[in-house]
Structures are given as structure tokens and as C-alpha cells.
Specification:
The chain is mainly beta. The strands form five sheets. Strands 3-4-5-6 form a four-stranded antiparallel β-sheet, with no helix packed on it. Strands 7-8-9-10 form a four-stranded antiparallel β-sheet, with no helix packed on it. A four-stranded antiparallel β-sheet has the order 11-12-13-14, with no helix packed on it.
Length: about 190
Amino acid sequence: LLKFDPDWGPTDIPIVQTGMWQRPIAAGSFYGNFYVLDAQANQIYRYLPTTGGYEQAPDTYFDPDTPVDLSGAVDMAIDGSIYILFQNGQIKKFNGGTPVDFQISGLDVPLNNPTAIYTAPDELAQNIYIADAGNQRIVQLTKDGQFIRQFKPRLDDEGDFTDLRSVYVDEIAQKIFVLNGNQLFAPNLPPQ
């Protein structure tokens, strides 16, 4: 695990028991805790911070007796709840490892091959954003799953969204960052 500081450069952060991971596909953090989504193990591992990094064995997010199927998961986002995005366009929401009802509504065209999901705690982000690669767009939803709007490049722009990989949104600074192939786009987030 690396931490990057613009003034000091990269720093190694110790993290233990990575050998137990089977097929980690996403990582995230929430108030210093570090989460690893392991689709093959059907588990999310939560590491609590220690003085030197993440030097204690992780907790499991899902109760071992609760069946969870993470096959087809592609990404996760955390705002206190954990949202898991699946390749088929489904999003599952969990609070403390327990499923919470979450349905996407009002979306005119279903998600097609989504690759990334982003949200953050309410003080930083009020919405959920999805990189919908199959439809070459970024979709904005409320945290209850209601469709708000979508973003696509203008037809006269040089770039396109044919290889969407990731999305990050700074709602406070009103910027959206989109990784498409090896290009990074950073347009202003238009007001609603």
C-alpha cells in the first residue's frame, strides 16, 4: 500500500495478511479505515489504522454465516454505507454488513458494462456517480438511487468515453474527474 503526498512523495504503508486475499478488485477508505473488496472470497476486509500503518489482522465486513454473492462485482464506494457495483448494472447497498434496499429508478437507458462507482460521506458528496462504459457516459444518482442526470462529452470534443475506467467527483470544488483509457478529463461539474 502506498500513500502519496505531493510534498514528500510516495510512502510505503505496512499492511498485513494480504496473502489471505483471493481476488481483490477494489479498495477504499473511510475515516482512516482501509477496505478491500475480494470478489472471490465473497468478503470485504476492513483494516483499522495502527501507528505504523495497517498492522493488525482485518475484520470481515460480512458475517461468515450470511451468504453474500460478490461474483460480477467491479467496484465499491463508501459513505458510511458500502455500495457495490456489479458488471450487470446492479448496485447493492450494505450498512454494517447488512443488505439495505437500493433500487435505481428513473434511468432511461439501463447501465451497460459499468466500470466504477463513486460517492463519499454526505459532507463531501450528496450523490452517487457511475462510469457507464457501455453507454459512454457518467450517471449521477441520489443516494436513494433516483436518476438525476448524465454526462457525455460534447460531439465537437476531441475525446470520447469509449474506454471509461474511473470517476471521482469533488462536489465542493464542482469538478468531475474522468479516466478514459490513458486520458484524464477534469471538466467543471455543471450546477443542477
